[in-house]
Task: inverse folding
């Protein structure tokens, strides 16, 4: 009985202890202290990284740390809240950390992310085994210079055979990929397609074309042909040309630019002849031509017959001879005035007029005949009340051209201001026939071209003709402006040239049609023209001025 009682007592005691323990656990509330290692919430959670301010702080974080006792902290970034792949941003021994704009931009771009706007990044701090809470930022980045546009759809070694018959057709389209374009950054991205002689590392850059916020640029046969020839490839020859695309973003507030340049792309181009080269080494010298060499000799041009040269010249009363290379070493005159030439022969007497001079080295003869081709009619000079408008020989195409203002009316072409030889157009089909029908005209400015080889003509209407106006030339319009003509050596570009114009000390501008409605000056004297721009300073002298309106958005000018 005694032993049994003790066992019962022990069992009861155990039950009491167990019951007491359960009651205690049910009433116990277990808490942990609030983390003292905590990043302070920033006042701004969106960050715009401005490439023009690379050394400005992008963000600064700070934290309270009353538990780790650490004096060494590692700051980490992740592209997801779970920090699946943490990226170390830096270390600090204080309770705050900053990064510059360029540092944060590089860190984000190095993750390989392809967007630029509202990129979510998470930032936290490690202090030994302790980890802080994380902060979310939305960041707008900018492209890294080492991440340029990349060409697509065209490869190194691609070949393009150009043809003048396809002059205005697209020959090649350069396309590129650039993630910036799809990122809605609110910035204009300017792309410049540049070319250069192959293998020169763009020592001399040829500006091919440009575009804004676009991922492609097309070049016509004419444009690519001109670029290839300018790079040094001869006509009717295949050769390599280097291309690259340069991206430029400009900060509107600071004017700073961010440039990125693609890798070089080399293509093979077969060129074609755009203009003739009829030049020769022979010219006309004399008191009737150029005051015996005070200016360059009047040139002879090649013809279809080897050894036969032509010159189209206006002479004054005096004498002439023929010589080579503007030099007296090799010259010809005419002993006996019989139409034959002799080395070092006598001067040839001429009277004032416009002439075609033919020099034939096959039989050592020459001829001088009156020659001028002009426009006559109610559209120009009331059928001859004043002299005809004279067309000039274009040696680059073996045609006659001129820029003329015509009235509503009719016109014809005639030789030597005389009706003995005149041309009209039966059928208005662009072909010329002797003594045929008048040609109807509508008032305007025209480039007139006549090809006497196949008796054809064209009238190309243009909006304006350019001139020089200013105190340096015509007292700001007291007399007509000095008129430019087109540079016929570049028929597919809009280039205007004014040769041997005499300027005074003063200022000048360029304007269209002797009127101030459209005028250009040069702000900054940098060779770029601006509508209504600043006057251009002139020093007295004789000059050749060139205007280039091939790119109407960026016209340029030169003077020499």
Result:
């Amino acid at each position: 009985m005694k032993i049994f009682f003790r066992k019962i007592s022990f069992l009861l005691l155990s039950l009491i202890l167990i019951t007491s323990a359960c009651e205690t656990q049910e009433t116990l509330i277990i808490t942990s202290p609030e983390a003292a290692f905590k990043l302070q919430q920033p006042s701004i959670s969106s960050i715009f990284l401005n490439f023009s301010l690379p050394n400005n702080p992008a963000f600064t974080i700070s934290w309270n740390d009353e538990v780790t006792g650490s004096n060494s902290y590692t700051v980490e970034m992740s592209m997801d809240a779970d920090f699946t792949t943490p990226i170390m941003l830096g270390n600090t021994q204080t309770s705050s950390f900053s990064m510059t704009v360029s540092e944060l931009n590089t860190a984000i771009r190095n993750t390989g992310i392809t967007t630029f706007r509202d990129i979510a990044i998470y930032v936290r701090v490690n202090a030994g085994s302790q980890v802080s809470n994380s902060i979310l930022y939305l960041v707008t980045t900018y492209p890294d210079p080492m991440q340029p546009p990349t060409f697509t759809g065209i490869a190194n070694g691609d070949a393009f055979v150009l043809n003048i018959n396809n002059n205005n057709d697209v020959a090649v389209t350069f396309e590129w990929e650039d993630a910036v374009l799809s990122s809605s950054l609110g910035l204009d991205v300017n792309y410049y397609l540049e070319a250069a002689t192959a293998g020169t590392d763009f020592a001399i850059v040829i500006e091919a074309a440009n575009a804004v916020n676009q991922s492609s640029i097309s070049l016509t046969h004419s444009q690519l042909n001109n670029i290839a020839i300018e790079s040094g490839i001869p006509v009717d020859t295949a050769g390599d040309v280097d291309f690259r695309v340069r991206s430029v973003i400009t900060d509107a507030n600071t004017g700073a630019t961010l440039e990125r340049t693609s890798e070089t792309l080399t293509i093979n181009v077969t060129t074609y002849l755009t203009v003739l080269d009829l030049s020769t080494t022979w010219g006309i010298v004399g008191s009737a031509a150029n005051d015996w060499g005070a200016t360059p000799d009047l040139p002879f041009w090649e013809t279809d017959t080897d050894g036969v040269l032509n010159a189209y010249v206006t002479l004054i009363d005096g004498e002439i001879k023929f010589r080579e290379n503007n030099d007296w070493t090799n010259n010809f005159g005419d002993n006996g005035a019989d139409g034959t030439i002799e080395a070092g022969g006598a001067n040839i007497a001429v009277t004032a007029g416009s002439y075609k001079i033919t020099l034939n080295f096959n039989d050592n003869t020459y001829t001088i005949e009156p020659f001028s081709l002009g426009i006559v009619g109610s559209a120009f000079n009331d059928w001859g009340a004043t002299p005809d408008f004279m067309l000039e020989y274009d040696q680059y195409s073996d045609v006659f051209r001129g820029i003329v203002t015509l009235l509503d009316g009719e016109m014809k072409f005639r030789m030597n201001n005389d009706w003995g030889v005149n041309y009209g157009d039966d059928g208005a089909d662009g072909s010329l026939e002797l003594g045929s029908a008048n040609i109807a005209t509508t008032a305007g400015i025209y480039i007139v071209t006549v090809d006497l080889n196949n008796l054809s003509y064209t009238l190309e209407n243009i909006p304006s003709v350019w001139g020089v106006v200013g105190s340096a030339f015509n007292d700001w319009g007291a007399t007509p402006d000095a008129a430019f003509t087109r540079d016929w050596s570049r028929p597919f570009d809009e280039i205007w040239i004014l040769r041997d114009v005499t300027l005074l000390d003063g200022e000048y501008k360029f304007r269209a049609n002797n009127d101030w409605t459209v005028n250009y000056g040069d702000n900054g004297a940098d060779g770029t023209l601006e509508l209504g721009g600043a006057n251009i300073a002139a020093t007295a002298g004789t000059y050749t001025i060139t205007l280039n309106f091939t790119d109407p958005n960026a016209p340029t000018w030169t003077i020499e």
